[in-house]
Write a sequence for this structure.
């Protein structure tokens, strides 16, 4: 990602509001991922985006509001990816593979380097608004998997949510470990190994007729 996202647009260039907001969020992501919330400055974000601070404040009244908007964007991206993965097939092993692939793809996106840290490794996690959003994306993805587990197995909702939590939690933790360990195992092998482990467990709950 460019170190000056707005450079080729010009500092005074006029953009539609939605395009400007997208540009500012991209710049903010670079700064927040690189520096963390507390060390990031609105001046740095405005400079990275190639806009003046007044333009930045027209869209976001403060640093927290900007951070929360960015967190919402990335949380929605992860949730949407998991939900879309579940819809790609009716085969449960393939569903596990698709969900794991969605998590690995999220932590390994070249165009959004470090975006997952905004959700899972935020230095602002004790802020109630941030914690609520992190818990919300975790809950949303778990519930999507639980819906499928409950429908396929006939298990009660609490049991389905327990299994879904195990699957999504494993996917998140292992994908983050994989990236932090400099991809010591290839992505395909990592997904296959975790898929095999999880399938050994989930396959013990046969689909109801």
């Amino acid at each position: 990602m460019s170190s000056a996202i707005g450079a080729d647009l010009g500092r005074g260039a006029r953009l539609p509001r939605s395009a400007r907001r997208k540009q500012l969020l991209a710049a903010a992501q670079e700064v927040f991922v690189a520096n963390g919330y507390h060390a990031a400055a609105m001046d740095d974000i405005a400079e990275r985006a190639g806009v003046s601070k007044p333009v930045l404040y027209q869209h976001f009244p403060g640093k927290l509001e900007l951070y929360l908007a960015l967190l919402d964007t990335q949380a929605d991206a992860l949730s949407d990816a998991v939900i879309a993965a579940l819809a790609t097939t009716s085969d449960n092993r393939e569903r596990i593979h698709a969900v794991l692939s969605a998590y690995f793809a999220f932590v390994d996106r070249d165009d959004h380097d470090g975006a997952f840290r905004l959700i899972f490794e935020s230095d602002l996690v004790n802020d109630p608004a941030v914690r609520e959003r992190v818990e919300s994306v975790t809950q949303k993805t778990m519930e999507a998997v639980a819906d499928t587990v409950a429908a396929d197995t006939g298990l009660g909702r609490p049991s389905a949510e327990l299994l879904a939590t195990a699957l999504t939690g494993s996917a998140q933790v292992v994908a983050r470990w994989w990236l932090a360990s400099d991809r010591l195992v290839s992505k395909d092998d990592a997904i296959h190994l975790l898929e095999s482990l999880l399938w050994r467990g989930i396959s013990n709950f046969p689909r109801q007729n």
Remarks:
- The mean pLDDT is 85.
- DSSP finds nine helices and no strands in the chain.
